[in-house]
Amino acid sequence: VSFDDWGTETFNLYHGLRNLFNAILIVTLAVLFRISAQRITGLTLGYKVEYRMWLYGLLIGLVLIIVSNGKLCLLLPGGLLFYHMPGHRIGAFRYGLNYFPIGVIAFFGPLSNLLLAMVFKWLLVYFPGNLILEKAMNINIWFAIFTMLPIPPLDGSHVLFATRLWYAFCGTLIFVLAITLYFLNIFPALIISLLAAIAVWFAYVWMTKL
């Protein structure tokens, strides 16, 4: 995410290393925040959640950013592993993994990144033009968009496997909110994305009944 931040017109080592350090901090915060949200949600629903990097996804992103000279960024970081915790699920479904709660847990990954992006966008009101805050907002938006794609082992695949209706709602909410955050204030972006998700939900239900 800092591939093309090593100087404006000429190579600048200090400038590049500083941007690389900032990018590492931002990515670390984005990953830790999303994993923490998913683990807390998992424990609440009776699942132990572990994160595993997706080597092929990281390599694809690296090759793409090198070939495009830093112009195209593809974040395919990894996915989740789920373990059933019988002692935490007394009175609930206890006979193995259940797709729907797994989809709920996965959804909190992209959602947490957008919540973090909204925090940085709010801070930009008080610190306009701050490049670090802008990059932090952008990276979290990218994380939300790419990890919501229905490609195993990304979070979006777990949401899709929960039910297609759940993915229609959650996917629309994430994608629309991610895009509108670039152009609108937080509250209008939330309203538009929620209305769009509800509209897609009703449209999907109506189409499946035809």
Sum up the structure in keywords.
single chain, 210 residues, mainly alpha, two-stranded antiparallel ribbon, 68% helix, globular
Give a quick precis of the structure.
By secondary structure, this protein is mainly alpha-helical.
Report on the architecture of this protein.
It is a single chain. The protein is mainly alpha-helical. It has one domain. Helices cover 68% and strands 7% of the residues. The chain contains 7 helices and 2 strands, in the order αβαβααααα. It has a two-stranded antiparallel sheet. Helix 3 packs across helix 5 and helix 5 (155-162) packs across helix 6 (164-183). It is globular, with a radius of gyration of 19 Å. The model has no long low-confidence stretch (mean pLDDT 87).
Helix/strand layout:
Elements (H helix, E strand, L loop, with lengths): L12 H33 L1 E7 L1 H13 L10 E7 L14 H28 L4 H17 L7 H8 L1 H20 L2 H23 L2
Antiparallel strand pairs: 1-2
In spatial order, strands of the major sheet run: 1-2
Helix content: 55-70%
* General shape: globular
Q: Name the average pLDDT.
A: 87
